[in-house]
C-alpha cells in the first residue's frame, strides 16, 4: 500500500510511452523513447521500490 504512488507513476509512464510510440513513426525515435523510458523505470525501481 505504501508504494501505490510509484505504481501509479509506472502506469502513467507506460500509457504516455504507448501514446508517444503510436504517434512517432520512425524507428530511431521509437528506440530512443523506449531506451529513455526503460532508464527512467529502472531508476525508479532501484531508487524507490527496491
* Total of helices: 2
Shape descriptor reads elongated
* Strand coverage percent: under 5%
Please give the number of β-strands: 0
Distance between the termini: 14 Å
Q: Report the structural category.
A: mainly alpha
Strand count, sense and barrel status of the largest sheet are: none
- What is the string of helix and strand elements? HH
Which regions have little confidence, pLDDT < 50, spanning 5+ residues? none
Q: Roughly what is the average pLDDT, rounded to an integer?
A: 81
Cα-atom radius of gyration: 12 Å
Helicity, in percent? over 70%
What does this structure look like?
The protein is mainly alpha-helical. 86% of the residues lie in helices and 0% in strands. The protein contains two helices and no strands. It has helices spanning 4-23, 27-49. Helix 1 packs antiparallel against helix 2. It is elongated. The mean pLDDT is 81.
